[in-house]
């Protein structure tokens, strides 16, 4: 059954990548607003239309992001099996080579996903290019992040593992999912409340984003206390009850 489940997850993951490619190609979408500022400067109305098409047609669709969750499922299953079968882990030179090759590839892929579009001129940003980018950039970034998480979990990235496992980050980690759900609502509410054009600058964006982070986590704290904590305590209660029965 686990193999069947993983196969189903993999098939849907591939379908998710194909979906992103096909939708982008069929509707001639771009790679996102942040990477097409020149289009906004030339034609704000066209930029608005392209952004609406991209946001509603691809960005918010779960089926266009399922492959990211699939990678998380595969990683969790692999780590679980590795913990059960530690005696089967092969150590030695091969693992070191694989580690360094993986580190280089993860650094390249994650950097290309975030900064890659800055290296391509507007002439190269064709519909076909946008289709490949929209289909693959979440996949490659997730694979790079999965490599990082795996090696933290297995103790091969000692410094990063200790830093990310610091007790001071535990409260923030419990608020992170609520913050993830709440931050777009807060940002949209703010920008829709503006009654005059916003003057963008590096300083204003830095201050604005720090404000978003602070207010988001304050609201996330309240939401977690009201809704998240009761369910966590309920889960603990059922687990303890199950252990007593066993």
TrEMBL record:
The keyword Transmembrane applies. The lineage of its organism: Eukaryota, Metazoa, Ecdysozoa, Arthropoda, Chelicerata. InterPro entries: O2_lipid_transport_reg. The chain crosses the membrane at residues 54-77, 97-120, 132-152, 164-186, 206-234. Keywords: Membrane, Transmembrane, Transmembrane helix. This is Nose resistant to fluoxetine protein 6. The keyword Disulfide bond does not apply.
